[in-house]
Specification:
Elements: H1 13-27, H2 32-39, E1 42-47, E2 50-57, E3 60-66, E4 71-73, E5 78-79, H3 82-94, E6 104-105, H4 117-123, H5 125-132, H6 136-142, E7 149-150, E8 156-163, E9 166-173, E10 182-188, H7 197-217
Antiparallel strand pairs: 1-2, 2-3, 3-4, 4-5, 6-10, 7-8, 8-9, 9-10
Helix pairs in contact: 1-3, 4-5, 5-7
């Protein structure tokens, strides 16, 4: 089984809500200053009872209150979706401040990831390669608009920052008449210090949906 909680096989809102409640409880007595340091977020104490954290999620500002652990979107104060809130709570629960390595690994290299790598590759890299269908220039054109920073892997690659210490790299290899395009979502080798493996499954799916939606919108 994937560790902690399998986001990719959700049975409903109640299940997510139950896990969020557990995470809130486990984080309620944590040291907010240490949490801020480990997650590279900004801690704003309001009084002796608590305050809030500020950090980007997919480069968009979010706030998370402490100790209630209620998440909102930037200045709009709209509540985060249950999945986004659960991801943030896992981030605060798991993050230990371990340095990023700058070395990329596959989903199979994550804890228990090898057992689910084929499925992950199917709904991430394979889905992206099929959607772009030999149109590598479209990937190179659209990725920066989604926050992608160029990398030096494959025929084209971009790094996307999901959370302050959680980068993902999407790599494309262009095919030809005999071989199809291929793509893969990679993670920093420090990944398990910041999120659970099933959380990375959700992030890989999320960046895939964003890229495909951008391609289909053109």
């Amino acid at each position: 089984m994937l560790n902690k909680f399998d986001f990719s096989n959700l049975s409903g809102v109640d299940r997510i809500s139950g896990r969020i409640a557990e995470l809130r409880q486990s984080l309620s007595s944590a040291d907010p200053a240490l949490l801020a340091a480990n997650t590279a977020s900004l801690w704003h104490p309001l009084d002796e009872a608590g305050g809030y954290f500020q950090l980007p999620l997919w480069r968009q500002p979010v706030q998370v209150s402490f100790p209630a652990w209620i998440g909102t979107k930037g200045a709009s104060a709209q509540p985060l979706s249950p999945v986004d809130l659960a991801l943030l709570l896992y981030y605060f629960k798991t993050a230990d401040g371990f340095p990023l390595s700058g070395r990329w690994i596959s989903f199979a290299d994550l804890p228990d990831g090898r057992f689910y790598n084929q499925a992950f590759q199917g709904y991430t890299g394979n889905a992206q390669a099929q959607a772009f269908n030999h149109d590598l220039p479209a990937f190179e054109r659209l990725a920066p608009g989604l926050g992608g920073e160029p990398a030096e892997l494959g025929d084209a690659s971009f790094i996307f920052q999901a959370l302050p210490r959680v980068p993902l790299c999407v790599v494309f290899w262009q095919g030809d008449e005999d071989f199809p395009d291929s793509a893969q979502v990679l993670f920093d080798a420090s990944a398990s210090h910041y999120l659970t493996t099933d959380s990375f499954a959700i992030l890989g799916s999320a960046i895939t949906r964003r890229l495909i939606a951008a391609k289909n919108a053109k």
